[in-house]
Amino acid sequence: MSEDPQKDPIEALIQNVLKELQAAGLAQKPAPAAPPPPPTPSASPNPAPRPSAAPTAAASGGLVIDLPDPTSDEARAEPGIDRPLDAEGLTALMNATTARIGVGRAGPRVRTRSLVLFQADLAVTQDALLRDVDPQLLDEFKLLRVQTRVTGGKAEYLLRPDLGRQLSDEARAQISQHCVKNPNVQICVGDGLSAAAVEANLRKIMPVLEAGFRQAGLSLGTPFFIQFCRVGVMNDIGDLLHPDVLILLIGERPGLGRAESMSAYMAYRPQSGHTDAERDVICNIYDGGGTNPLEAGAFAVQMAQKMIQHQAAGVKLKLLEQ
After folding, report:
1. Of residues 124, 139, 231, the one with CA closest to residue 188
2. What is the pLDDT of residues 194-206, one digit of tens each?
């Protein structure tokens, strides 16, 4: 029986594609398989057969295709444009911005490398949004744990920002029972939109804040952690504890491939009805391109002292300083 004539053009097409991959350095011919070891004598005349490992692509004679990691620093910095008119200028331009430029294209579409990198960075964002802060970190700082009015998990938290701005009744009772009232400075930690940001920065910024305020002669309240937290919850905390300055360390909305950015929101005597106009913020706190968490902590101490001196924050503080 003759072979199916339809298989010949398909096989030829496959071989042409494999040759192009090999020429581009994206595929390697498998190394020849090593000969099987000679049989060893056994005491048993009928030894039990050994389970064989699953055949690999190389062992089965298939083609080995190994794509490089697109998330490495070297891969991110490599231009995707073939034969650029000014290679040095393109490299300098790419190094001057975090925007995705110089990635090239394949016809009207992005290249596979750019698409894979986008998907990898999107996965970082989704992981930061959906994961909880490591409880061991909270135990390390002996943080009391409370929750907002979000009861439906991350899905409800993302859909109902209003619930994340209000403490639950149980949280109010816990804070009233366990936290110091009327401190000069109250430090709180909220998961916000990135658990990774809290985990990346808390160990560095918290000691700076605590040491800085003690050195400045300012009393500290009882620090605690707020799950499903939004910035507006500062008003509820102010109504309960009446601090002179409230600092909320919270994970920022993650960008593509950037999940460790944290913010420090600050307010002077926050209370119900206050808006963002009564708050200041130190944003983009992270190592390697953002505001160093050690410097951010020192700056927060200075800003808190100004708030207490002028008895104001936000827009009003800026007007008084002019």
Report:
1. 231
2. 999 999 999 999 9
pLDDT-derived band at 118, boundaries 50, 70, 90: confident
Rounded Cα gap, residues 132 and 312, in angstroms = 34
Distance CA 170, CA 186 (A): 20
Q: What is the pTM of this model?
A: 0.73
- Asked if 184 and 268 count as a contact pair (C-beta separation under 8 A), the reply is no
Domain extents for the chain? 130-321
Query: Per DSSP, what are the bridge partners of residue 246?
Result: 186, 267
Backbone angles phi, psi at 2, to 5 degrees: -75, 155
Kindly tell me the burial class for residue 267, based on how many C-beta atoms sit within 10 Å of its own C-beta (0-12, 13-18, 19 or more).
Answer: buried
The DSSP bridge pattern shows strands 144-147 and 224-227 to be parallel
The rounded distance, in Å, linking the Cα atoms of 128 and 131 is 6
Strand runs labelled E in 137-272: 144-147, 185-190, 224-227, 245-251, 262-268
* Cα separation, 164 vs 175, whole angstroms: 16
pLDDT for 47 equals: 43
Whether 237 and 186 have beta carbons less than 8 Å apart is answered as yes
Local structure of 258: helix, strand or coil: strand
Strand 279-285 versus strand 262-268 pairing type: antiparallel
Q: What are the counts of helices (DSSP H) followed by strands (DSSP E) for the chain?
A: 11, 8
- Choosing among 1.10.10.10, 3.30.450.20, 3.40.50.11240, 3.40.250.10, the CATH entry for 130-321 is 3.40.50.11240
Separation CA 41–CA 296 (nearest Å): 71
User: If you write DSSP's letter for every residue of 198-230 in order, what string do you get?
Assistant: HHHHHHHHHHHHHHHHHHTT--B---EEEES--
